[in-house]
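Hello,

Our lab assistant flagged a job as stuck in the queue for most of the afternoon. It eventually completed. Since we weren't sure the result was trustworthy after the delay, we are filing this so someone can double-check. Below is the sequence as submitted and the structure that was eventually returned. Let us know if re-running is recommended.
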Amino acid sequence: MEVEKVFHMKKGVGHTSYARNSLLQRAVTIQAGPVIEESVREVYNTLKPECLMMADMGCSSGPNALLVVSRIIDVTDEASRSINRQCPQFGVFLNDLPGNDFNTLFNLIPNFNQNLQEAKGSHFGPCFVSGIPKSFYGRVFPDNFLHFVHSSYSIHWLSQVPRELVSENGEALNKGNIYITKISPPEIHTAYYAQFERDFTLFLRSRSREMVSGGGMVMVLIGSINSDEPDTMLELLGSTLQDMVLEDVIEQEKLDKFNMPFYAPTVEEVRKLVEAEGSFALNKLEAFTIDWSVDTSQNFETRAKFVAKTIRAVTEPSLETTFSPAIMDDLFLLFEIRVKERIARKKGEYLNIVLSVTKKE
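-- returned structure --
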């Protein structure tokens, strides 16, 4: 899979689209909200920019990116009012890979701007929104350009599938799986962590060049307690694909060669890499859990359907690079059944890591 060229969430606004099935991501962003607000307030009070330049790295195509932008603007407006200053203008840069559905996102912007003007009134400075189609694993902006960076549910996606998952003679080493499993050999975890280390370090190094001293960044990503023994949704999805191999729906060889470009680090792995890169002071590093279905008051069938739609919106475009689009309905129907069985016997939760950093002098 050429990740930079083909990776994206499910496009459009249909019933299986990411725009319609990203309530989990929204709930995670809301829960991380106090950390985002604290960081934005500190950045404004320290720097007091006349135009606050912010970027959402990995914005995707749903309304969640503008939810975050709106809250950042609100906090900045409140902070400026508290010290009797004019609210700054805003430069907002929505970044994702070129395959992202920017059209769906851009269609939300006119209403977003109108709502801002109605809510803020004549004192409010203009807000300029742009899309930046480029991988954030590398430079995206000029030197000393950004005051605040946000990234939610993006950095756990790798720049590429680890090359070490294929031997020198072309043999697949993670056969029957699409990610690390509890029975994977150690070299599978080693390969995934090495790729995450390279990517995350490059992400930090690139943002350190692009941010002003004293600028703030908040990142939220899926994590794990023991990254070499995960209990992840991708493991369950992989076993569902294996069931379809046994039913002769897909070929074993195709499954053996398919791996997701994903890594869920531990809190300590994140801490180690931030400290090793050295450009940022670590303000907060916390973890919280959220149920796979968000709302545990629903019955198992409703919750499983929610989970299956969420995962389909995220993974279907990647799966279609190897497997036939014609099997997707059957795949996620079977996956929904597997999820229902799983949550009926054991709680399913995502561990989420949120960290706040400040660019050093």
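-- support follow-up --
The delay was a queue issue, not a problem with the job. The result is valid. The first strand starts at residue 51 and ends at 57. The mean pLDDT is 94.
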